[in-house]
Write a structure and sequence with these properties.
- This protein is an alpha/beta fold.
- The protein contains 14 helices and 13 strands.
- The two termini are about 20 Å apart.
């Protein structure tokens, strides 16, 4: 086992060199927001889609577009609006008068990195079209189905649903996002850096430091990061505590409408592997699980009316679960 871990550690050192380069390139444009950047990188390393939530002006779109500029891969930005149609997203059939045949015109979803900007402003039909791409990695246009090129990743931004003109995403779609990062206001020092850096409005050059082939190799290494049986049991306990809190002597059952699905168990483990990889380790620790736990569970634990009455959020409940479940 020790010899295998040593070999894996060497592979991680070889394949993770781009991480520092990516962080450096993104840091040239985006000040602070380390948690959001880490979430984007973990999504990139696992193929898990990422949802960024925050009020306008917190560099959500800028962070995704900067990440895309750091990658030698195709990128498409789709601005979601109430009048957006599924065809605007996935493409449609066009009648060719010269041949008398219908020709497929592919939409912007056929890219490696897709930015779904303000995703919660679009109607349900558009969300359904996006759902197939996110889950099945394919698109159906007419009677023909097209596989999406790999790597494929959806990075979405949304404003809080209290904002005017926004709508809650369907639960089935929210569950497809591996991570949900809540983006907060910058610190005073970070905001001063933003002011000094952006005041003149000059464009900052970003170099591409990673291509698709390198990324796919890194993803294979991430899959090999060692997860001990005790860590696996810990993950199972955390997810089960959202469904059956009484088993863990937690009194939060009246506060939870629905617990996390089995998809949360898989995503929590995969994200923990990516978190370890980003820190140059070949094995997962309980700290990895605790660090990314809220990102994986906050949008999967549906709170009850009683919790809302007590002004509690899903983050509060997830924090209680992590504080209470025994750490291996």
């Amino acid at each position: 086992m020790t010899e295998d871990l040593n070999r894996l550690q060497e592979r991680i050192e070889q394949e993770s060199g781009f991480v520092r380069d990516l962080q450096k390139e993104i840091g040239r444009v985006v000040v602070g927001q380390r948690g959001m950047v880490d979430a984007l990188l973990m999504g990139l390393l696992t193929g898990g889609h990422v949802l960024l939530e925050g009020v306008p002006g917190l560099a959500k779109t800028l962070s995704v577009s900067t990440l895309a500029r750091s990658l030698s891969m195709s990128f498409a930005r789709i601005q979601f609006t109430p009048d957006l149609l599924p065809a605007d997203l996935i493409g449609t059939l066009i009648f060719d008068q010269r041949t008398g045949d219908f020709v497929t015109r592919k939409g912007p979803i056929f890219a490696n990195i897709v930015l779904a900007d303000e995703i919660n402003r679009a109607p349900a039909k558009v969300q359904s079209a996006l759902l197939e791409a996110m889950q099945e990695l394919q698109i159906t246009i007419g009677d023909e189905t097209f596989r999406l090129d790999q790597p494929f990743l959806v990075l979405a931004t949304q404003n809080p649903i209290e904002q005017e003109g926004t709508y809650p995403l369907p639960e089935a779609q929210v569950d497809r996002f591996m991570l949900k990062a809540v983006v907060d206001y910058p610190t005073r020092d970070d905001e001063r850096q933003i002011l000094d850096r952006m005041l003149d409005g000059g464009d900052i050059d970003v170099s591409a430091v990673l291509d698709g082939e390198q990324l796919m190799r890194a993803r294979e290494v991430v899959k090999e990061v060692y997860v001990d049986d005790k860590i696996r049991e810990y993950v199972l306990d955390l997810v089960r505590a959202t469904r059956e809190p009484a088993e863990f002597e937690l009194s939060v059952a009246p506060l939870i409408a629905n617990g996390a699905s089995p998809r949360a168990t898989l995503f929590l483990t995969r994200a923990a592997r990516a978190h370890a990889f980003l820190r140059g380790r070949g094995f997962v620790t309980p700290e990895d699980v605790k660090s990314i736990g809220p990102l994986v569970l906050r949008h999967r634990v549906a709170i009850s009316y009683e919790a809302e009455a007590e002004e509690l959020t899903s983050d509060d409940i997830v924090r209680l679960i992590f504080d209470h479940v025994e750490v291996p």
